[in-house]
Specification:
The complex is a heterodimer. Chain A is α+β, with helices and mostly antiparallel strands. Chain A is built from 5 helices and 12 strands. Chain A starts with a helix and ends with a helix. Chain B is mainly β. Chain B has helices spanning about 1-5, 60, 215-220, and strands at about 15-20, 25-40, 45, 70-75, 80-85, 100-105, 115-120, 125, 135-140, 145-155, 155-160, 165-170, 180, 195-200, 205-210, 225-230, 240-245, 250, 255, 260-265, 270-275. The chains are: A alpha+beta, B mainly beta.
Chain lengths: ~230, ~280
């Protein structure tokens, strides 16, 4: 019981920062995000395996597309892992770390240096990206929860969500070194967890006018475009 | 025949013997190249520079077309890692900094010597990372598979100091050779006594080996003197055999591969000198 409790509240390590993963697409042209530092923000949301399996089929579909199903935001937990774009290289998510950041509630392999060791279970996750003119993560949550009371509509304001994936995290106290932090962009080869990972990028789309919100299969479009083939 | 196995790892190989003489000083080196394929997809690889190349800065030891950008290096500093992130050719140097690498540690430690803060971009630019033969490093490659061609020379005799007092070391064989780590020219166990631990990266974790001493396992008829040291027991090392009399799992001999790094733990009070000598009989 104690071991289970420790795992449940441990903080695994993941990596959000990397290059060539953030893009905008206005329906006419697409390309890697560009702009001054912190013109775009990114946040990793997760839920543990038991929470995911407890979701109804409808809710599993809803969490894939928060733009169309903002109430599903409450089904996710915030990892606390945030990033921003960098002007040094287009398409790059910078920060908080390239070596790993603690993700709240994401289990570690405990005393094992091997992914999946010590009874470790994977978490399910999605990555959100948005333009900074909508505000910080705290503001974005309010905007989603308030049924798209966005600060800016249309071109110039952007939002995107990756497909839902699952994977182990690193961390713990394994030897010779704790299991290395797992990139949220990694495929299954990184942890040898069958079917894991599979997210290769996040596409930000213009935030539509309220009347077109019902057509917000846009998020679904990004899922289709960026679901890595295995 | 054994010479022919040197440097061959499914890799192209070119060897020539170069000698130089100057003012009665004679030196002989084998020069050439080896190749290492780094898997992509944000997979970690534990690799090692196989050949001396001037300053052994990664700008030199990674050939020009190897790094695409966004790779991370983890170089062991004795108790943890210096973490480097590569922004791409010319990004940092184009801004007037020492390299195209920044400190990727988090929480921020900024412990890499001589790194410089770039307030405009909120990053710390570092000097060019270095890694010489005998050392090793993790690389996290978020791109597709990348192949590096190591170029330089082999020192014909080497000594790698493995610190004691149960310190961990991230090391590699300075002589690029495929073969049993206990046999020449790798000769890792030549100065071992017993209880040394070896950790070999398998792509998503470690195979942990415990050394029982020369002839202990082989004297009992087992394939090697290494046993599985994993704890909690995983017994995931291919080919290991259970010894019910001693309740341990003996493994196959440990193979060194070209461009491969590994961790060692020396439990003894004093350092172990890992000495290698290459000659034409190898």
């Amino acid at each position: 019981m104690i071991a289970g409790a420790t795992l449940a509240y441990s903080q695994g390590t993941i990596i959000l920062a990397t290059g060539n993963v953030a893009f905008t697409n206005n329906g006419v042209a697409s390309g890697p995000v560009k702009g001054a530092n912190s013109a775009y923000y990114f946040e990793v949301l997760d839920m543990n395996q038991s929470a995911w399996t407890a979701l109804s089929t409808a809710n599993q579909a809803a969490v894939y597309n928060l733009l169309a199903n903002p109430s599903a935001l409450a089904l996710w937990t915030d990892t606390g892992v945030s990033g921003r774009n960098s002007s040094l290289a287009a398409g790059t998510i910078a920060g908080p770390s390239t070596s790993g950041s603690s993700a709240i509630n994401w289990p570690t392999p405990g005393t094992s240096a091997n992914y999946g060791g010590g009874g470790q279970t994977p978490d399910y996750y999605t990555i959100l990206g948005w333009s900074a003119n909508e505000g910080t993560w705290a503001t974005l949550q309010n905007e989603l929860n308030a049924s798209q009371s966005w600060n800016v509509m249309g071109d110039g304001s952007w939002f995107g969500q990756t497909p839902v994936a699952f994977n182990y995290a690193g961390g713990g106290s394994g030897l010779p070194t704790p299991a290395a932090a797992v990139s949220v962009w990694a495929g299954s080869a990184a942890t040898q967890l069958p079917g894991s990972g599979g997210v290769s990028g996040v596409i930000l789309l213009p935030i539509p006018e309220p009347s077109t919100m019902v057509l917000a299969g846009l998020g679904g479009l990004s899922l289709l475009l960026f679901r890595r083939r295995h | 025949m054994r010479t022919k196995t040197l440097l061959i790892a499914g890799a192209a190989l070119a060897l020539s013997l170069a000698t130089s003489q100057a003012q009665n000083i004679y030196s002989a080196n084998i020069v050439g190249y080896t190749t290492t394929v780094i898997p992509g997809g944000s997979v970690y690889s534990l690799i090692a520079n196989t050949l001396n190349d001037d300053t052994n800065g990664v700008t030199e030891i990674f050939n020009n077309t190897f790094l695409k950008g966004s790779e991370s290096l983890f170089i062991w500093n004795g108790s943890g890692y210096y973490v480097y992130y590569y922004w791409g050719a010319g990004v940092g140097t184009g801004l007037g900094y020492l390299s195209d690498w920044t400190d990727g540690s988090y929480p921020p430690t900024h412990n890499i010597p001589n790194e410089v803060y770039d307030s405009s971009d909120d990053v710390y630019w570092t000097p060019i990372p270095t890694s010489k033969p005998g050392q090793a490093m993790f690389i996290l490659n978020p791109n597709g598979p990348e192949t590096n061609i190591w170029q330089g020379s082999i020192s014909l005799s080497n000594n790698v100091v493995i610190p004691g007092s149960s310190a961990y070391s991230m090391i590699s064989s300075p002589i690029p050779y495929i073969g049993d780590v206990a046999q020449a020219p790798v000769s890792l166990t030549a100065n071992f006594t017993s209880s040394e631990l070896l950790f070999v990266w398998n792509g998503s974790g470690y195979y942990a080996y415990y050394y029982w001493g020369a002839g202990v396992g082989t004297g009992l008829g087992y394939p090697s003197d290494w046993a599985d040291a994993s704890y909690p027991p995983t017994h995931n090392i291919p080919g290991e055999v259970y010894d019910s009399s001693d309740d341990i799992w003996w493994t196959l001999p440990v193979t060194n591969n070209i461009g491969q790094g590994f961790f060692m733990l020396n439990p003894h009070g004093s350092a172990i000198n890992w000495t290698q000598v290459f000659n034409n009989n190898n």
